[in-house]
Amino acid sequence: MVSREVQAHNSVVRIGNVPVGGDKFAVIAGPCSVESEQQLMSVADVVKGHGAVALRGGAYKPRTSPYDFQGMGIEGLKLLKQASEATGMPTVSEVMEVSQVDSLCEYIDCLQIGARNMQNYGLLKAVGETGKPVLLKRGLSATIEELLLAAEYIYDAGNPNIILCERGIRTFETATRNTLDLNAVAYIKQRSHLPVVVDPSHGTGVRELVIPLSRAAAAVGADGIIVESHLNPAEALSDGHQALTGEMFAQLMQELKPFVEAA
Ligand code: PEP
Ligand code: MN
Q1: Is residue 4 part of a domain?
Q2: Considering only CA atoms, which residue is closest to atom 4 of ligand 1?
Q3: Whose CA is nearest to atom 9 of ligand 1?
């Protein structure tokens, strides 16, 4: 069970050799989509150089329009593995279907369940059976209770290695892509022993808001962030408007120093 009533101490989930949920604030970074070897390798080097501990990148992309870039698929997974070997960073990538679970497990260290699949119970059971770390994103219109029950599906299938992710929810507000619900972070830390990370990139959809909301995530008690970065956001094949440039990523890490280095 994911409730604090059954386990009082915080769970620490390891992505490769990187602990999430311990004393250090974990920064997971990388592009929304894997686009090419050059794109992935160059951004991986930059985020690693500034202190990211794990690499994100989508190979299977849940796009709102079927006419938009759908991801590189298996070739993208292979590039993530290559980037992981080159930098030493473990990887996080989204699995959209049960049929993709085996390849994700072969190439990737942590399986992301995207917001749109938070209540895809067949998929939750399938990743639960792998025992691999799972980063479970909150659905666009899911309550906190529904998120915790979705986590319970993974846990009940035999996998306690779950990281919860607040990535913004749909509200009446249209100024930003989503409304980042930082209440949820504080609330879940009370209710559950699982680590919680924040995704300020999808939470705001606006590059300029990512650094301030990352600081807020650290202040409210999140265990880390997962953030999108691209060295040439104007050319990005997805979510360029919310990607941090290399310079902005350096600035982010500078501002998070007290949390990232906390002993
Ligand atoms: C992503 O991480 O690129 C993504 C599609 O996230 P979400 O499922 O939160 O929209
Ligand atoms: Mn994205």
Answers
A1: no
A2: 114
A3: 115
110 Cα: distance to centroid of ligand 2 (angstroms): 16
Q: Residue 135 is part of a domain; what is its CATH number?
A: 3.20.20.70
- Answer whether residue 3 is part of any domain: no
Count the helix, strand and coil residues of the chain and give each as a percent rounded to the nearest 5. Answer: 45, 20, 40
Ligand 1 binding site (Cβ under 6 Å of any ligand atom):
32, 58, 62, 114-116, 137, 167, 199, 202
Is the residue at 263 inside a domain? no
Q: What is the ipTM of this complex?
A: 0.99
Kindly report the pTM of this predicted structure: 0.98
Does a structural domain hold residue 260?
no
Closest ligand 1 atom, residue 61 Cα: 5
Neighbours of ion ligand 2 (CB under 5 A): 32, 239
**Domain assignment of residue 71, given as a range:** 13-255
Q: Please name which of 155, 128, 45 lies closest in space to residue 89, comparing C-alpha atoms.
A: 45
Beta carbons within 10 angstroms of residue 124's beta carbon:
26
**Ordered per-residue pLDDT tens for the chain, 263 residues:** 999 999 999 999 999 999 999 999 999 999 999 999 999 999 999 999 999 999 999 999 999 999 999 999 999 999 999 999 999 999 999 999 999 999 999 999 999 999 999 999 999 999 999 999 999 999 999 999 999 999 999 999 999 999 999 999 999 999 999 999 999 999 999 999 999 999 999 999 999 999 999 999 999 999 999 999 999 999 999 999 999 999 999 999 999 999 998 75
Considering its fold, how many domains does the chain have in total?
1
**Spacing, Cα 254 to ligand 1 middle (Å):** 25
Q: What is the dihedral of CA 4, 223, 146, 61, to 10 degrees?
A: -150
CA distance 192 to 57: 27
Task: Specify the residue with its C-alpha closest to ligand 1, atom 6.
Answer: 114
